[in-house]
Structures
1.
Amino acid sequence: MPAFQTVRGMRDLLGKDAQIFSNTLAKAQETAFLFGFKEVFTPHVEHLDLLSAKTGDEIRQRMFIFEDLGKRQVALRPEFTASIARLVTSALKNEPKPLKLFSTGTVYRYDEPQKGRYREFWQSNFELIGSDKPEADTEIILLTNKFLQTLGLQNYVFKIGHIGVIKGILSHDGVDEKTQNAILQRMDKKEYDLALKLIDSEKCRTTLQSLINIKSKDWHDTVKQLSVLVAEYEKAKVAVENLAEVITLITSSAEISLNVEPAFARGLEYYTGIIFEVYIPQLEIAIGGGGRYDRLIEAFGGEATAAVGCAHGIDRVVIALQTQNTEYLTNVKLGVMVIPVAESLKVDALKIAQMLRDCGVSVEFELMGRKMGKALEDADKRGLEYAIIVGERELKEGCVVVKDLKKREQTTLLITELVEKLR
Ligand code: AMP
C-alpha cells in the first residue's frame, strides 16, 4: 500500500516548526491578556446557515461543507467571527459591554495551496463587541501591533481603508446592497475596471474612479482629498471623519507604519467601517486583517451592537519570522538528558530528573537502555545541551557527572549545585 499523505492544502507541523507555532500562539495569548481579552473556545464545525449568512461569496464558495449523520448541513469554520456573533446573541447576550473575546485555532478554506496559503491554517482572533468609538478600532490595531512587536517582527505595514466611504458613495447614488457587495469583492481583488462596470450611474462611477485614483504617502493629504471628493455624500463624509479620527488616535499613541488606501476593500461582506490589513512589503502577503462590523450581531438576531475585530494569520506570521530569522526563533530552551550508568541506578537517576523538572529544566531520560557511548550520541543528536551521567562512585559522594555536549567538556558536580549550574 502506498504511504498515506496529508490531504492537499493541509500540513503536519513538526519539530522546530511546531515549537515556533506554539510560541507564536502563546504570544497571541499574552497579547490578549495585556489588552484584557478573554479566551473562548468555539467548535470547528458550525451550521452552514450561520457560517454562510454574512461571510461573502468569496469565502462562501470555498467552505468545506458536509451533511452529518443526523442530516444537518454543517461546515468547517472558515473564520471565527460568525461563531463569536452566535455567542454574543446567545450565551453572552446579557454580558456587560464591551465584550472582548479572543480565540486561536485552525480555520478551513478551499484556497489554491501555495506558500503561505493553505486549506487548513491557524488564526489568532480578537473581537471587541459593544463599542462604536474610534478608541475601539484603535485598540484592535494597537494590539495587532503589540503582538507583532513582541514577536520581534520588523518592517510590517498597516494598510487602512474605510468601507463606509465606499458604501456611502454607492448607496447615495442608488446602488443596491447586493451590487455593492459584488463591487467590493472586485475591488478587494483590485479588479477596478470590473467593479466600475457594475455601476449604472455615471456620476457614481466618476466619483469611485476618483477615489481609486487617490494615492498619497501622507495620510493627512489622502484624507484631505477624500473629504473634498465626498463633500456632497453625507454618509461617506461622516465615514471620512471617522477614518481621520481613528488614524489620529493610532498615530498619536504608537509608532506605526501606516498607509491609507481609500480603494482598499476586503472579501468579508459584514464590514461597515474601518478595515485594515498588515503586510510585509517584501513578502507580499497579508499577515493579518480586520475591521468594524456594526450590523452583524443584529443580522444574527441580536440587538443592534457595534463591533470591531481582527484575525492574524499565524502560518504567515511564522513564515515572516523565519524569513527575518529573528532572535526569538533561535532562542531554544535548555534541555538535558539524564543517563544512569547501570540498571541499579535507575531510581536515583529518575529522582534527579524529577528534581530538575521541579526546577523548570526540560529533562529527557534515557529510555532505550543504551550503553553510555550510544546514549551520549543520541542526546547530542537530539540537540540537548547537557548529559547528566549518574554513576555509582559519584553518587556516593552526592555528585553526578555533567557533560556539556556542545563543548565536549565534563565536570563532576554536587547534586545540590546542579540546578544552579543549569540555570
Ligand atoms: P481573513 O479572515 O480573510 O480576514 O484573514 C485573516 C488572515 O488570515 C489573513 O491576513 C492571512 O494572514 C490569513 N489567511 C487567510 N487565508 C489564508 C490561507 N488560505 N492560508 C494561510 N493564511 C491565510
2.
Amino acid sequence: MAHYLVTGGAGFIGSHLAEELVRRGEQVRVVDSLITGKRHNLSHLQGVEFIEGDLAEIAVARRVCEGMDFVLHQAAIPSVPRSVEDPVTSNRANIDASVNILVAARDAGVRRLVYAGSSAAYGDTPTLPKVETMPTAPLSPYALQKLVAEQYCQMFTRLYGLETVTTRYFNVFGPRQDPSSPYSGVISLFISALSEGRAPKIYGDGGQTRDFTYVANVVDGVLRACHSPGVSGEVINVATGGRVSLNELFATLRALMGAGVTPEYQPARAGDVRDSQADISKARRLLGYEPTVTFGDGLARTVTWVKAAAAGMS
Ligand code: UD1
C-alpha cells in the first residue's frame, strides 16, 4: 500500500483517480481549493483524507506532500476562455500552485509526480495527429500555463532528480464533469442542454474537431505513468487517437438522447484550436497504454450516468 496525493481530487478527473486508487486499496489524500471541485464528488468513497486548501500557498503545498509516495497533480483552473478573461487567477492556479507542489514534493522525498498537461500546448499547428516531439504553440493563457508547468516538471527532474511525468490530456469527458459553468467542457454542456430540451451553443461552424477521451482511459494512463519504469522526465499524450467534429458530437448525442432540438451557432471563441488529435504511439510504447473505452461507449456511459444522477440514483 502506497500513499497518494491527488491534487484537485474533488474535481472531475481527480475524483476518478481517487476512486480507482481506493478500489486498488491504496491510501489516498486529496487537496482541493473547491474553486471548481466539489466535496460531493468524493462522498461515495471510504477512507479518503480530504484537505481543503489553495496550493498557491506554499505552506499548504508542503503540508499536503508530507508522507506521500506519489503525487498526481490534477489541480488547475482548466478552461481556455476563463484564462482569456482572467489570466491572473488562472496563472496563479496553473503555474504558481504547480511550482509550489514541485518544491514541496522534492523536499518531502516524493517518489514520482505525475502532472496533468494539456494538448492545448500544441496550439493550431496544421499537422495531425499531434506527436510529443512537435513544437508547441500555445494560443491562450491556459495553454501557455499548462506548457510552462510541464517544463517546470522536466526542469525539476533535471535539476533536483525529482521523478516527474507529464500526461497530456485531450478533451476528457465522463461522469461527474460539471456542466454548471459556461466554461465547462463541451460534452457536459451539450448533455445538460439536451436533457433539459435547450439548444446547445456551437461556437464557430462546428467543423472543429477534438480527440474526446473517456475518463477511464485517462485514469489508466495516469496510473501507468506513475508506475512505469524509465519514463521520468517524459511528456506523453493520453487520448484515444481519434477525432470527432462538434457537429458529429451533437448529432451522436441527439440520437442517443432522443432529443429534438437544433444547435444555436455563435461566433468562434478567441483562443480556440481548430483541430486536435493525438498520436498515442508513445503511450503505447512506454506505458503499455491502450484506450479501452471508445468515444461512443464513453458517451453512452456518460448519458446513462447523467440520467441516473437526475433521477437521484447516483
Ligand atoms: C479542453 C479542456 C482543457 C483541456 C483541453 C485539452 C475543458 C473545459 N477544457 O479544452 O482543460 O486542457 O481540452 O485538449 O474541458 N464549444 C462549443 N459549445 C460550447 C462549449 C464549447 O461549441 O458550449 C466548443 C469550443 O469552442 C471548442 C470545443 O467545443 O471548439 C471544445 O471546447 P471545450 O470543451 O471548452 O474544450 P477545449 O477548449 O478544447
3.
Amino acid sequence: MNTIVVVGTAWGDEGKGKITDFLASKADVVARFQGGNNAGHTVIADGKYHLFQLLPSGSVNKDVVNLLTQGMVIDVKGLLEEIDELNDPNLQLYVSNRAHVVMPYHLKIEEAIELSKGKDKLSTTKKGIGPAYSDKANRIGLRMEIFTGSNFKEELKKIIRQKNIDAEKLEIESFDFEEIYNEYKVYAERMRKYVIDTSIFLNEAIEKKKKVLFEGAQGVMLCVENGTYPYVTSSSPTAAALPLYAGIAPWLLEGAIGVVKAYMTREGAGPMPTLINDEEIVKHFHKTKVEYEPRTQTYRRPGWFDSVILNHSKRVSGISHIAVTVLDVLSGLKELKICISYNHNGKEINYIPADINEYSKVTPNYITMPGWEEDISNVTCFEELPINAQNYLRKIEELSGLEVVLFSVGPNREQTIEVKSVF
Ligand code: IMP
C-alpha cells in the first residue's frame, strides 16, 4: 500500500507516534490531518526523546516531507516553539492555507466555559481546540491564508470585536487588539514560508506513487461524531474523516492501521466500562510510568482490553490492520481480562449506546486469559513472545477479525516489531 493512515482505536494515547515514526522511515510524506496541540506524540529515535504536539511524528526522519493539512487547528506560537526546539535545518514542513489558527482568545474562552460548567466540565486539554473549531463552524475563524496575508490586521480587528462581545457575556476581561496583533504579526511573518495548498501537494504526491502516511491524533472514542459525546474532542480522528480533512478523494486511501493499546486507558472525564478498580492492579499500571501524563500531571485511568470498542472503531472509522502497543506493560500480571460484550439493562449488547447516560450504565462481560511473567522488552519477533502473549494477540485478532501487523514492547524505535509489511 502506498497511502495509509494510522488512527487511534480508543481514547487516544495508544502509541500512535511510535507506530507513525516506525512507518515514517519508509514514507516520502507524513501528514497530520485533524486536531491540534491537544495531541502529544512521543517519539524516541536515536536515543533522543521528542514530544510532538503539532509536528508530524515523521519530523525526525530527514527525508520526509511533513504536512499539517486543512482539518487541523494550529497554535502557531506552539508550532514555532516546536520547530525551534527541534532545531533541524533539514526539516521539510508545509502547512495548509485552509488550516485554522488557534488564537489566545480561544484559550481564555475555553477556560471560562470549563469553569462555568462546574462538576460537568469536560476536562479538556485547555489548548483552545473546541473554541477554534467552533469559530470555524461559526465562520469567524482565522485561516492560515488570511493570517499570513495582507488582510490579517483588518480581519483580526473584526474578530476581536466579536470576541469582546463573547467576553462580556462570559464575564471575562476583554481582549486587547493591539497586544494580540503585535505579538501575532511576528508569528505570521515566520509562518508565511510554510503555507501552501496541501491538498494539491498531496494529490500530486499520490499521483506520483509516493508513499504517503497520515497520522491521526486522539482516538475514535474521542470522535465528535462517533465517540462518547459530549466527552469528546471537536474533530473526527477517524480514517473515514481523513479524505475531507486532507483534501483527497476517499478511494485514494488504501489502508488504515488502527493502533490498539494492549489495555485501555482514559485521560479526562467520561465513562470507560472496563475501568480497573483493584488498587493492586492499578498500581501495576502506574509503576511503569507509561501512563503518567506530563501535560496534565496525572495518571491515566487503566482498564481491561475492550473488543466492543475495537469493533466499533473498525466499523465507524474503517480499519484494515492493527498495531498492538505497550504489550510489555502487561508482563507480571497473573490474569488478563478481555471484554467481549456489555450488559445493558439485562441484555447482552455488542455496540456502544449513543446516549452517554446509557453507556455509563453498561457492565463488561469478560473472558480471562493467563498472563505471563517474562520481561518481553527485548523480543525481536512474534515467535520470541511467551506463548501466553502470543495467545493474547491471537485473541485480539480473533475478536476483531483484523490482522496484527505490528506490535511494540517498549518506547524505543527498535522495540516496534513488524510482523508483516503492509506499507
Ligand atoms: P480537547 O481536545 O482539548 O477539547 O479535549 C477533549 C477531550 O479529549 C478531553 O477528555 C481530553 O482529555 C481528550 N483528549 C484530547 N486530546 C487527547 C489526546 O491526545 N490523548 C488523550 N486524550 C485527549
4.
Amino acid sequence: MAQAPITQDVLTIPRKLPEGPLNLVGLTRAALTEALITAGTPERQAKMRCGQIWQWIYQKGVRSFADMTNLSKEYRALMAEHFVIEVPEVVTREVSEDGTRKYLVRIAGGHEVETVYIPEEGRGTLCISSQVGCTLTCSFCHTGTQKLVRNLTPAEIVGQVMLARDDLGEWPEPGKNPHDETRLLSNIVLMGMGEPLYNFEAVRDAMKIAMDPEGISLSRRRITLSTSGVVPEIGRTAEEIGCLLAVSFHATTDEVRNTLVPINKRWNIAELLEALRTYPKASNSERITFEYVMLKDVNDSDEDAHRLIELIRGIPAKINLIPFNEWPGAPYERSSNNRIRAFADIIYKAGYASPIRKPRGEDIMAACGQLKSATERARKSRRQIEKEAGLG
Ligand code: SAH
Ligand code: SF4
C-alpha cells in the first residue's frame, strides 16, 4: 500500500478505521464527524454531513444509508461500506393489562436488559437501563441481587429509546413537526437496571442525543436520572447533562439507610444532602425528586415522615412515595395503604408534593425494582432444559 504523504497538517494523515463496520448510533457529534472524515468525507463537508446523517438517524428513524435521499448515491455507498446503524434487538415484548410494555433487550455478548414503556394520559414514559445488573446491593431491590455484568454503551442506552419508538410507530412522517410534545414517548427516566452515575460518560452521551434539537429532541426537563447517591458525580450531572434528578433516599437515619441503600456507608445522608443542595441551581432545574420506598415497619413511621421534612428543609423537592413492589424471596413487606396515606399527609401538610407512585405493569414484573426477574427465570429454565437434556 502507498505510504501516506507526510505533511505538516496532521488532519490530512489518514485516520485508521476500526476493524469491521462501525455503528454510528451513540457517537457524539464530534465522534461522528471524525468517523466521517476517516471514511473519506472531505473535511470542509464533514460537519454538514454529520448534521444530515444525525437527522436521518435520530429525527427520522432511518436505519439504512440507502434511504438518506439528500446524500449522493456514491456517498451513500461509501457510508454503507464503512458504517452500520444498529439498535439492540428486542427478544420479547410483554404488554400488561394496564398498557405498560416491557421489552427484553439483547445487547452484544448475549446479555439482556429490560426497558419499560409506561403510557399515561397525554404522555408516556420510557424507563431505561444503564447497566446489566448493578454493583450496588440495595436490600429491597431485585436488580441488586444480580451481579453487574457490564456497563451499557451509549448506543445501547439511546438505542432503547429508538427501539421503543420503533415499536410505538412513532417516527415522524416526512414534513411533520418532530418537536411535537404530544408524543407517545415524551419522557425518559433512568430508573431501570443499574446505577446511571456509575456509567456516567455513556449515560451523558446518550442523553445528549436524546436532548439534541436535531436528535430525539426531548427537553432536558423531560429526562430524570435516578441515583442511589453517588455523591461525587452529582455536580457533574448538573453541569454536563442538566436533566432532572431523582434520588433514592428511602430512610431518614444513617443506621436504616446503611442497611437499605449500602452506598450510604460511603457517602452518608449529610454528604448526600450537601450535594443535593447545590443541584437545582447548578443545573438550572426545578425540584429534586426524593424517592422513598414504603417498607412496612422499617421506614414508614410518622417520626420518619417528620425527620424527612427536617432533613430536606431548604431543598426544592417533591417526595415520591413508592409502595414496595414484592419479588420472590424479598425480605420486606409493603406498608399498608393507610400507613402510606398517613405518611403522605404529614409531608403534604409541610408543603411538599407527595405523590404515591402507582405500581405499573406488576402483572408482567415491570414495576420498580422488579426488573431482571423475567430474564433470570428464562435463564433458569434454559439451564434446566440443558440439564434435562444432559448438557448442563
Ligand atoms: N439505581 C438507581 C435507579 C434504578 S431504581 C437508583 O437506585 O436510584 C429506580 C427506583 O426504584 C429507585 O428509587 C429504587 O430504589 C426503587 N426500587 C428498587 N426496588 C424497588 C422495589 N422492590 N419496590 C419499589 N421500588 C423499588
Ligand atoms: Fe442498584 Fe438502584 Fe437497585 Fe440500588 S436500587 S441495587 S442502586 S438498581
